[in-house]
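Deliverable D5.2: sample structural annotation.
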Amino acid sequence: MKNPIKLSLYINYFVFAILLNSVGIVILKSQNIYGVDEVEASVLELFKDMPIAIVSFLVASFLPRIGYKKAMLIALGLVSVACVSMYFGNSFWSAKLLFACVGVSFALVKVSVYASIGLVTNGEKEHNSLMSNIEGFFMFGIALAYFLFPAFNSESDPDAWLNVYWLLSGLAILSFLFLLRADFSEQEEIPGSNLMEDFAAMFQLLFRILVIVFVVSAFLFVMIEQGIMTWLPTFNNTVLNLPENIAIMMASILAISLGVGRILAGYLAQKFSWVTVLVFCIIGAMGVVVFVLPKAVGANISGVETLGDIPLIGYAFPIVGLFIAPIYPLLNSVVLSALPKSLHSPMSGLIIIFSALGGSLGSRLIGILFKEVGASSAFTYTLIPMGLLLVALFFLKKLTDQAKKTA
């Protein structure tokens, strides 16, 4: 029974990967088609992330009562309708509505997926591995988005790109039908006996030092990842002087490197201590920002018409994804593995809430930096949350060791 459930989790996550992380593409489109500036366009990240945070807060603790399968079916149905609305709306407001619906839906899916992982795995290493693999698969969905949207683009028809939403709506419906046939067995304990006790279960987690350090770590990481991922298409277009289609496709390198990095993390997590892996990764990511990014900015790329025309240095910065990739799934797995399975749903809610807040703030700050200090310098400021995250890891390691001794 476990394998069909796992396959269902992979497919649902893949569909939402394409939708959720198309925000960077739509931000670029909004500037070029709807005439908004960088700061105004960055609001799309807010419309995506705030519903994720709010819905996660409202439903995570008592989602087991609704049922993970039912919650994911609701999410897929909502997002399929939202995609069709984007096609007919064709405006910046339609984009806001789309990402609000995607945010609501993703909150239901992500809490369900994270909580379900605990039902189909045994032990910390197996949990670490499946979490990393699912998150890696998510990144390949993101990579596909960077090719799907340019495939529908047309220089002669500014509205042609909207046809991609018919395809995305169809994928959501297919995922809905597959999930409908999956046999879920949801028999884990439910934290409370009523709504107030459900919320209490979530808030009580916030009084644990381990959870506090973790949510700060998750917040910092998502600031880094979403800040880079959302604004990389714009960076490629304005700093590297790549044509719009090429700029979007080039951003797929980051998603692919994130996917490869997370799949690799699933293997490394079974061989090495999670803290050893993450310290190496953060130092590596800082090295890319310090040494590789300035060379890419100063490369003076011109005359690009195809991906083959881009010099190697143009491909270098997105490789930062290999280093930052393992951080998020391993952090999530570490804290979930340290808690009873009955608390995985409310803890998943907290993960998603603070991830959404970090992603929204990170994207917003990078958008402001793009406007105020220039696109060529904005990504350098990711060194600040990277440094803070490196320090937080050692506190998290100490606290998880203590939790294991008292378990």
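Annotation notes: Residues 79 and 102 are 6 Å apart (CA to CA). The first helix runs from residue 2 to 20.
The annotation will be released with the project's public dataset once the embargo ends.
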